[in-house]
Amino acid sequence: MKHRTTMTRRALFGAAAALGAAPLARPALTQAPWRPNRPVRVVVPFPPGGATDMLARLIGTGLGDRLGQPLVIENRPGGSGVVATQNLLTSPADGHSIILATADTHTVMPLANNRLPYRVSEFVPVSGIASVVFSLVTRPGLPVQDLQGFLRHARAANPPLNYASYGYASVSHAAGELLKIAAGFDMTHVPFQGAGPGVLAITADQVDAMMVPVAVAQPQRSRLKMLAVANAERFAMVPDVPTLKEQGLDVTADAWIGLLAAPHTPPAIAEALHAAVRSVQDTPAFQETLRSNGFSNRGYGPREFATYLSAEAERWGQVVRTAHISIEG
């Protein structure tokens, strides 16, 4: 019995010594999500009043409350997004300055201009918010009633038909070239300073066709012909209009809108910003506003958005190279 008691004491002393030598386990400390400590600037590369500016202000309405700091919208138009992007480039990479970028300013135009003072791939994806749905419209006097009639007419036209865009090296321009490539005919490009002037030229029978956002063309439906939407599926704003793919032409053309942060912004900051943005996006009022203004809702987080942007650069890059769209800066 005495021997057994001694062994028990020794075992207890050994266990106590082992516990004393080993570090005590402590509860894991969870780092709090990043929060801004001053107002957050949202740089918009377009003048006030446009669809992108409207979207920025719509996000800002709810985002400030979620972040605990006000959002300041700064409109910095110029240079197809270059002015606004350079402003962000010189801002600290601390999440307090972000840009509401688009496929026009940060995909197609950079692909056509190899002299930009920055690389768009350096900017940190935060949130993919929406996409603008495009449609193919023609002037009222063009003797066609549907897509197949338009294709026959365009292939036989001599001289070629012309098509409007809302700017050189824009998504509208690249979408017109994509249509030409897919359908196998030629058209002459006529760039305008904005989607509105291009659509007005269509309604006045001055230009034959245009790839234009549905939301811009819809108010003029009685004065032009909307032959198709360039979407993967029919669009709720114009449910009566078939897609290009439904009618035998496998073409999808849309333009993303999303938030980017300055180069070298830490991933934790991008994730925190996205979480706040997503909470705004998920509200019924925000989703209804998107639908009623011709947007498709997106909810991409930083990693998913980065993958999407890479795929978009590849998709539009093929069109830019094939069509020889180039800006000599």
From TrEMBL:
Keywords: Signal
Keyword Nucleotide-binding: no
Protein name: Tripartite tricarboxylate transporter substrate binding protein
Family of this protein: Belongs to the UPF0065 (bug) family.
Signal peptide: 1-27
Domain of life (superkingdom): Bacteria
Signal recorded as keyword: yes
Transmembrane annotation, as ranges: none
Originating species: Plastoroseomonas hellenica
